[in-house]
Every structure is written in C-alpha cells, then in structure tokens.
C-alpha cells in the first residue's frame, strides 16, 4: 500500500464540503503510482470512482497526462506535422466509424496520421479501431513501437496499440469494468499525444463541458494547435444529420484567452452532404461498406467519408477551403488512390 497515494485519495474523496482538488504535481504523482502499480487495486479503484464523482479539473488532467508522458514511448518527429485523430477507446456501437477512411484519405494526400487505442474495452465495449484495421488487413497488434515508427515514415499512417506500446496504461483497463463507469482516464485519453513533435490533435466529445475541459487542459500544457469536434459517439467523425460544432485552435500566444479559437458551425445540407448517419449493423457489414467506398462506389458511407476527409484535408492545409477539400477527397477515392494507400499499408505492416 502507498501512504502517499492514500493521502491523495483522501484529498479528492472527502466529499463536497471537505474534499480538495489535486494540483498538477499531485495528479502526476497519482498517475505514476497507478501506472507503476505502487497503489493497491483497492486504492486505484477508489481513486478512479472518487475522481469521477468529483469530476476532474483541467489542472488534474494536465498532471495525469504529465504522468503518462514519463512512461509512454513517443513517435519521433516527422518532416510534416501529423494529424492525430483521438477517439474513445471503448469504440462504437450505434453509428458506422469513418475514422479509418478519413485517415487513409489524409495520408494519401501526404499528411501523416496517427491513431491510438486498444482492444474491446468497457464500458461500451463497442467495435474498436484495432478490430477494423485488422479486418482491413492491417494488424497493428503485431508491431513493435519501432516498427510503427517505420510504417509511419513510409506510409504516413501509424497506430499506437496500448497493450503492446503502453502496457502500463493497458493494465488499468480492467478497472473500467469493475467500477462500471468511465473513469477520468477516458477523458484523458482523448487528449493524449503519443508523438514527440508538433502535431494537430483532433479531439472528439459528446457533452459541451468536455470541450471546455479540453481547452483548459491544453492551456495548462502549452498546446495551442488542436481541433475539437462534437462528433458521432464522441469520436472525431463529423455528423451529417445535424450541424457540425467544431472549434479550431491555431498556434498563438496561449496567455491570450480564447484568442486562438475559431468556432465553425458547418451545415452539411449547404454542401450537399446532409443525410442519415450510417448505422452500425455489424463488423462484417461495415467492412463491406468500407470496401465499396474504396472501390469508388456511391453509397451513404462514401458521402460520410468524403465529408470527413474533405474537412480534414482543409484543416491540414492540403486544400484552401472546405469545398476544394471535398472535391479532392472524392477524387482520391474514385481514382483508387486511397485503395492503393491501403494496399501499401498492408504490405508495410506485413513486411
């Protein structure tokens, strides 16, 4: 048992009248003790549920990310700053994920893309990015971290697989099932950056207060270049059945409150992309639909892929505006270049 951890647990778990928030250093210490298993299982479980009930502060989340950075390996800087698509680790259960197609489109255009995640995970236990890539013939679970770096450099795509590349964090996953609720770790992972250089983070969320938490946490950590997306099931996937609520934060002086925020309200109907979201019927059906998109066939998932791919091509500077980004994304799919990128990726990972 860790007496130090017990003191931090007592601080956040004492209730609304006598409880206190942790400072950044204390939160980093707590995270390190959980990652190293210096805290007992009883202490870790109590901390995670107490922290959820209290609600984490931005300073605490910044400290917990600091703690992760001391143990997690980082992909090394590339000549072109990458795009990180940060999505909930517990996957999708209602709507078809378009994130892998978005990543392939952006990578085909020459911009590196990094994703991260793990295996089926509580509490949603939805379909994960890991499973989708495996069914696409890209098994990231077999690669060492050094091999992921090589694949990223040669194909512009990389995936950090938690059990193999950050096992200390993966060891905390069972607590999610045991406490029956998403712990603050589930919010923290949406802001994690397993990359050592300058990058643009796209962070998905469901509830508006989470976006404010993103902005305040990044301010603590000096990050000024990120995109917040009120996406499908908390992912980075832009919806087509409602207005897209997006915050674009460009690099500037972090001391100036909200001076870097550009609020985008994108109406899919104004661009000809309004429609019902593609429902997630099964993994088999999803792969059939993805294959149709890669073959350039017209379908609802094709619309979703172009809508998302075009937006991120615009935000990564490949296209000067959204309209041209949409045209470029569609052409890359129709010409078979995205399918070629997938084949190149398959060969790189298998090799």
Task: Give the % helix.
Answer: 40-55%
Radius of gyration: 20 Å
- The tally of strands reads 7
Q: Describe the biggest sheet?
A: 7 strands, mixed
Number of domains: 2
Provide the structure class. alpha/beta
Distance between the termini: 45 Å
CATH superfamily of the largest domain: Nucleoside phosphorylase/phosphoribosyltransferase catalytic domain
How are the strands ordered across the major sheet? 3-2-1-4-5-6-7
**CATH C-level name of the largest domain:** Alpha Beta
Our count of helices gives 17
> What do we call the CATH topology of the largest domain?
Pyrimidine Nucleoside Phosphorylase, Chain A, domain 2
**What would you call the shape?**
globular
CATH architecture of the largest domain: 3-Layer(aba) Sandwich
Nearest-integer average pLDDT: 95
Low-confidence stretches: none
Name the helix and strand elements from N-terminus to C-terminus, one letter apiece: HHHHHEHEHHEHHHHEHEEEHHHH
Measured by DSSP, the beta-strand proportion falls in 5-15%
Would you kindly provide a written description of the structure presented here, covering whatever features stand out?
The protein has 351 residues and is of the alpha/beta class. It has two domains: 3-69, Up-down Bundle (Transferase, Pyrimidine Nucleoside Phosphorylase, Chain A, domain 3); 74-351, Nucleoside phosphorylase/phosphoribosyltransferase catalytic domain (Pyrimidine Nucleoside Phosphorylase, Chain A, domain 2, 3-Layer(aba) Sandwich). It has helices spanning 3-12, 15-18, 24-35, 41-54, 58-69, 99-108, 129-135, 145-155, 162-165, 167-170, 174-179, 185-188, 208-220, 283-294, 300-315, 322-334, 337-350, and strands at residues 83-86, 113-117, 157-161, 200-204, 226-229, 244-249, 261-266. Strands 3-2-1-4-5-6-7 form a seven-stranded mixed sheet. Helix 6 packs across helix 17 and helix 15 crosses helix 16. The relative contact order is 0.14. The mean pLDDT is 95. InterPro entries: Anthranilate_Pribosyl_Tfrase, Glycosyl_Trfase_fam3, Glycosyl_Trfase_fam3_N_dom, Glycosyl_Trfase_fam3_N_dom_sf, Nuc_phospho_transferase. GO terms for molecular function: anthranilate phosphoribosyltransferase activity. Residues 6-66 form the Glycosyl transferase family 3 N-terminal domain.
